[in-house]
Amino acid sequence: MTTEMLIASLYVFVLAAFLGYQVISRVPPLLHTPLMSATNAISGISLVGSIVIAGAHHGRAATVLGFIAVVCSTTNVVGGFIITDRMLRMFKRKGSKPETKSGPASK
Q1: H-type alpha helices, the chain
Q2: Whole-model pTM above 0.70?
Q3: pLDDT tens-place string over residues 12-58
Q4: How many structural domains are present in the chain?
């Protein structure tokens, strides 16, 4: 990897990190659950990619880094689904009966 490629890669990484932070910090709380589900899908894609890299036999360093990426991606996916499940349970009513329409005649 040449110096120019390394600088360009670092530039893209820093720009993506900054843009990601700006996008996520401006999300209203009402949209956190759908956004979390979309993030889980993206993490699933990165998990598949890291599995491919870990098993591609490009060398020992690539295999080790791929394995670390698999562990991190798996943790991210599982944690994301746990948090999404907790958030969705907050909106469920506990022990409530199905609502019926009550009008003046039913009193």
Answers
A1: 3-25, 32-54, 60-90
A2: no
A3: 999 999 998 888 788 777 776 677 777 777 888 889 999 998 999 88
A4: 1
